[in-house]
Every structure is written in C-alpha cells, then in structure tokens.
C-alpha cells in the first residue's frame, strides 16, 4: 500500500475503539475510502444507523453507490444547514474544508458521547483550528503513534486512559 494511503487511515484504530465503546447512532462528517466502509460494516453488524454527511458532490456520489437502509447518506453543500444538533453515540470528523471542522465540532460539543477527530497534530492547527475547541471538552485522548494524529474528545465519557 502506498505511504500516502496509509496516512489517510491513521484514524482507524481510535475510530474502531470509540465505536466499540459507544452506543446509538453514528455521525460521519466527510466520507472516505476507509472510514465509511468500516463504519458501515460496524453499524450493519451491530444494528446501528450511520449518517454520513458529505459536502463534495464527487465523494457523495461515490458513497451513494454503496448506501444501505441502515446507512443514511446526506449531501451537504452548505454545512451551516446540516441538521446535526441531536444526540450521537459517536461522531467522526474528517470533512472539508479544513477550516470548517472546528465550527462543526463546536456545534456538537454537548450532543456526542464521543467525537473522533482526524488530523490533530499540533502543527496542523493552522489549517484546522482545533485549539479553539479542545478547551470545550472535559476529556481528551490523542492517538499520536502515527501522523496524522487522531484525537477523541468527550464531555460525557472519560477517554483519558485509552
């Protein structure tokens, strides 16, 4: 596998861990080769519903070809109009544009048991502005074995010892 492909999948260990710890519906913001497929499999096996919001028409159409009854795929050309303010067992944040992510995390701060966030290494803060939202959470864990880093945050579940 190409090194670049491995870089886009560094979130998988933490995403799977958070899924196994969580209950209820799953929100994926930004579809991808790895996250969408894995979350679909996990949701199908556990009887949970996956809601994938995608702002790119190309990625939306690619994901739409694989949608299932338990996988709700929503085209989101305007992230401000997405209906995401409700309880989620797990949220995965990996959508574009990069600068938008911290805005949507802030919208979800009191609605998600776990929020898994990709690309959280400190040198990426210029692009993602995660330093603006991390103080809003009681608990945080960084999976920093591989770059890019992935973090999980929560105000409801202690993830500090993961």
Number of strand elements: 7
Beta content comes to: 15-25%
- Please indicate the count of domains: 1
CATH superfamily: Vaccinia Virus protein VP39
Assign an overall shape: globular
The number of helical runs is 6
Task: Find the CATH topology.
Answer: Rossmann fold
| Low-confidence regions | none
From the alpha carbons, calculate the radius of gyration and give it in angstroms: 14 Å
Strand order of the largest sheet: 3-2-1-4-5-7-6
Q: Provide the structure class.
A: alpha/beta
- Report the major sheet: 7 strands, mixed
Helix content: 25-40%
Q: Under the CATH scheme, which architecture would be assigned?
A: 3-Layer(aba) Sandwich
Characterization of the model:
The protein has 162 residues and is α/β, with parallel strands linked by helices. The protein has a single domain (3-154), classed as 3-Layer(aba) Sandwich (Rossmann fold). The protein is built from six helices and seven strands, in the order H-H-E-H-E-H-E-E-H-E-H-E-E. It has helices at 3-7, 12-21, 35-46, 57-64, 101-108, 125-128, and strands spanning 26-29, 50-54, 71-75, 88-93, 112-118, 139-143, 150-154. It has a seven-stranded mixed β-sheet, sandwiched between helices. Helix 4 links the parallel strand 2 and strand 3 (71-75). The longest helix has 12 residues, at 35-46. The protein is globular, with a radius of gyration of 14 Å. The mean pLDDT is 94.
């Amino acid at each position: 596998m190409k090194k670049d492909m491995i870089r886009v999948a560094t979130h998988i260990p933490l995403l799977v861990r958070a899924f196994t710890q969580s209950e209820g519906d799953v929100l994926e913001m930004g579809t991808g080769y790895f996250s969408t497929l894995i979350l679909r499999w996990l949701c199908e096996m556990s009887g949970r519903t996956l809601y994938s919001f995608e702002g790119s028409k190309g990625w939306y159409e690619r994901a739409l070809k694989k949608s299932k009854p338990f996988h709700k795929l929503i085209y989101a050309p305007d992230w401000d109009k997405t209906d995401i303010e409700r309880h989620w067992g797990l949220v995965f944040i990996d959508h574009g544009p990069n600068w938008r992510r911290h805005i949507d995390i802030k919208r979800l701060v009191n609605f998600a048991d776990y929020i898994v966030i990709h690309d959280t290494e400190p040198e990426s803060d210029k692009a993602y502005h995660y330093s603006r939202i991390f103080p809003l959470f009681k608990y945080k864990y960084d999976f920093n074995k591989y770059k890019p880093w992935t973090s999980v945050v929560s105000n409801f579940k202690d993830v500090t010892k993961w």
